[in-house]
Amino acid sequence: MESIKSIIQASIDVKQQLLENEELLSKIDAVVKVIVEALKKGGRIYFCGNGGSAADAQHLAAELSGRFYLERKALPAEAFHTNTSYLTAVANDYGYDAIYARLVEGILNPGDILVGLSTSGNSANIVKAFESAKANGIITVGFTGWSGGVMKELSDYLFNVPSTDTPRIQESHILIGHIICQLVEEQCI
Question: What is the model's pTM?
Answer without folding.
Answer: 0.96
